[in-house]
């Protein structure tokens, strides 16, 4: 078993705090999280790919990263604490090597439009229009997705974490 390094363990505490203590006027949007997961599967179906199973396994890290981007006014895959995607994910599982493939999509929609399904669709379109994000959306490597959406005012930040079916560790692995 690979245990998280002390710095990584510190990120887990930070993530839990970010999710637990939202700034005033901020809320998670489970309705939009479900809509974005649905858009991902509809897009995959158009590309003749198997659907992703929505899961809460990585909901806390997905939500924490969305909140971090919102609070610190950035968009990207490195947390404001300096933790990259891999190091963030390592803090949430006992052994990251059980997951043969993982990826993350992150986006925000800061247009002055009402927050709802149309805004979620516009945000999702950003992922479709970006080659690396589109590649993650349609990769056959992934079977699961955790989707996070946080709203402040008329802006939303979203994160989708994709991962493959965990493999069982065997004698030769």
Summarize the structure in words.
- The chain has 173 residues and is α+β, with helices and mostly antiparallel strands.
- The chain is 42% helix and 18% strand.
- The chain contains 6 helices and 5 strands, in the order αβαβααβααββ.
- It has helices spanning 6-20, 30-46, 59-72, 85-90, 117-129, 131-138, and strands at 26-28, 53-54, 102-109, 144-152, 155-163.
- Strands 1, 2, 3, 4 and 5 form a 5-stranded mixed sheet that branches.
- A hairpin with a 2-residue loop joins strand 4 (144-152) and strand 5.
- Helix 1 packs across helix 3, helix 2 (30-46) packs across helix 5 (117-129) and helix 5 (117-129) crosses helix 6 (131-138).
- The longest helix has 17 residues, at 30-46.
- The protein is globular.
- It starts with 5 loop residues before the first helix and ends in a 10-residue tail after the last strand.
- The relative contact order is 0.23.
- Mean pLDDT is 91; it is low at 1-7.
Task: Please summarize what this structure is.
The protein is of the alpha+beta class. The chain has helices spanning 6-20, 30-46, 59-72, 85-90, 117-129, 131-138, and strands at 26-28, 53-54, 102-109, 144-152, 155-163. Helix content is 42%, strand content 18%.
Provide the descriptors you would attach to this structure in a database record:
6 helices, five-stranded mixed sheet, alpha+beta, 5 strands, single chain
Which stretches are low in confidence, meaning pLDDT under 50 for 5 or more residues running?
Answer: 1-7
Overall number of strands: 5
Cα separation of the termini = 12 Å
Beta-strand portion reads 15-25%
Q: What is the share of helical residues? A: 40-55%
Shape: globular
Radius of gyration: 16 Å
Order of helices and strands: HEHEHHEHHEE
Mean pLDDT: 91
Oligomer designation: single chain
| Overall SS class | alpha+beta
Question: What's the number of helices?
Answer: 6
Largest sheet entry: 5 strands, mixed
């Amino acid at each position: 078993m690979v245990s998280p390094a002390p710095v990584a363990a510190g990120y887990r505490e930070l993530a839990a705090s970010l999710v637990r203590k939202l700034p005033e006027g901020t809320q998670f949007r489970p309705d939009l999280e479900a809509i974005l997961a649905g858009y991902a599967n509809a897009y995959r179906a158009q590309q003749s790919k198997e659907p992703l199973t929505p899961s809460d396994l990585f909901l806390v890290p997905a939500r924490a990263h969305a909140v971090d981007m919102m609070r610190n006014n950035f968009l990207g895959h490195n947390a404001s604490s300096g933790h990259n995607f891999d190091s963030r994910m390592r803090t949430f599982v006992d052994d990251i090597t059980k997951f043969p493939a993982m990826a993350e999509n992150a986006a925000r929609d800061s247009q002055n439009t009402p927050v709802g399904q149309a805004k979620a669709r516009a945000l999702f379109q950003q992922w479709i229009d970006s080659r690396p994000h589109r590649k993650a959306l349609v990769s056959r490597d992934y079977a699961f997705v955790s989707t996070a959406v946080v709203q402040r005012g008329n802006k939303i930040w979203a994160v989708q974490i994709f991962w493959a079916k965990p493999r069982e560790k065997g004698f030769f692995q």
